[in-house]
């Protein structure tokens, strides 16, 4: 399974393409914070960990930019709580 991650600044969302299917997380940038109001995966990708891989990439972006993530989306909040609680801001 091959993933391609990108920051689609035109649509203000992070995207992870897996086998031609898309997972995405809408975002809003604020000083020192990355607000994530919504995460979604193509129904065919559900249960395959695509959204988790997307969140892992977003966590890398947050660390690289030295910012915290404000998870409005319940999936993003749960993922961060389980995997990287230090990034929650």
TrEMBL record:
Domain N-acetyltransferase: 6-89
Transferase found in the keyword field: yes
UniProt entry keywords in alphabetical sequence: Transferase
Transmembrane stretches, start-end: none
Any GO molecular function: transferase activity
Provenance organism: Caulobacter henricii
Cell cycle is among the record's keywords: no
Family annotation (InterPro entries): Acyl_CoA_acyltransferase, Gcn5-rel_NAT, GNAT_YJDJ
SUPFAM superfamilies linked to this entry: Acyl-CoA N-acyltransferases (Nat)
Gene3D superfamilies named in the record: 3.40.630.30
Pfam families membership: Acetyltransf_CG (PF14542)
PANTHER family reported in the protein's UniProt record: BSR4717 PROTEIN (PTHR31435:SF10), PROTEIN NATD1 (PTHR31435)
Protein name: Acetyltransferase
């Amino acid at each position: 399974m091959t993933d391609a991650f990108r920051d689609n600044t035109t649509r203000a969302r992070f995207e992870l393409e897996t086998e031609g299917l898309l997972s995405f997380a809408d975002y809003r940038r604020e000083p020192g914070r990355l607000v994530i109001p919504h995460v979604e995966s193509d129904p065919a990708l559900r249960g395959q960990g695509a959204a988790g891989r997307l969140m892992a990439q977003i966590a890398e972006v947050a660390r690289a930019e030295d910012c915290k993530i404000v998870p409005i989306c319940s999936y993003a909040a749960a993922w961060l709580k389980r995997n990287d609680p230090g990034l929650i801001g």
